[in-house]
Amino acid sequence: MSETTGIDIPGTRRLARSLMRFATGAALLTLASCVPSDGPLTRRVVEAGAADGAYRIPQTRTIFDVVTIDQRVANGVTTHGTPSLARTFGFGSAGGAPVIGVGDRLEVTIFEAGPDGLFSTTDRKSTTIPVVVQPDGHGQIPYVGAVRFAGMTLATARTTIVDALKSKAVEPDAIVTLAGNESRNVAVQGEVNKAGMIPLGLNAEHLSEILARAGGATKAPYDTYVTLKRGGRQGTVLLQTIVDNPKEDVFVRPADQIYVTHDPQTFSALGQTERVGKVPFNTSSLSLIEAAALAGGGNLTTADPKGYFIFRYENESVYRHVVGDKRFRDLLAKGMTSDGQGRYPIIYRLDLGDPQSFIVAQSFPVRNRDVIYLSRHPATDFSRFVSIITGTLAPVTSATRTVQTF
């Protein structure tokens, strides 16, 4: 103890060193919890998904499954996940002759053999009668009365009129033509050059023919979607799909609604990819291996090849095929919910450390609005931590030396 100050210098130094060690330890713990992160590690995603069979985000309680991509999964997603108008509506057929409907305008020309008949004179042998089919389906013909035209073919309408006039006119005959087609229209809206009501002809027409009559799409077919609504059903495919696959060029029906929208296909690349952000397809279809190439591949120094993930909302039919009906029911019981369009959240995982993955990835399709995430390698966090410590401990060490020389 100093006689002049009464302070125990060695004890004070020990106390100061203890305080510095405590402060240093606290700083390290704080730094360890503050290491910059740009997404979950592979282990975090995989283990969280395996913990109770479904990955749960506590804040929103979103539940989804984590599925490793193999050839079975890739084939199932391709087969069941590709939108199809033919599956939704059936390809259809040319069908029979079109029938008359409410609102149609007809021209009924009636001929008679005699010069002074009901519909003939000395100057002409026929009379043309305009008929508009009323909401009750009927139309009026002189000397015949109300004829129910709705549901008849033109040939049936002719026979009906002639039969009704046989006892009243002189050797009657008739021709029934369609002057205005109001009941057999198709509505075409959106990104076409001539949107509006397109009347169907007497022959059955394909979807591509109706789009052509509407002036065609204004944008590239690989970025243009065609939605067909019929009754309570709806289906959407890329215009390029209709061009490439004749089975998708279905026959249209009266009262169909067709919407053409321009929505460039993109996916978002996140994590340790060389190119981060929204990436356009610029093609009608894109495989996972092609998407990885568009994203510039992975960062060689920070990426974890075992952690390539695709975040997606998947259609129920695809989900059930991939995980199985029992598993799907279990996920629903745990609280998994759809996005309002019948799609459910799922994560697909690809292990690029396995050579087979490069083959499988060629047949796994990337969808519009997918999020592709490449996880960082666990060693990256340790390297960052060490670099932070190296820069932070310098002033702490300097302070410790100051105390030691006190």
TrEMBL record:
A Pfam match: Poly_export
Keywords from the named record: Signal
GO molecular function, one term: polysaccharide transmembrane transporter activity
InterPro entries: Poly_export, Poly_export_N
Keyword set includes Signal: yes
Ranges where the Polysaccharide export protein N-terminal domain occurs: 99-178
Superkingdom of origin: Bacteria
Protein name according to UniProt: Polysaccharide export outer membrane protein
Organism: Mycoplana dimorpha
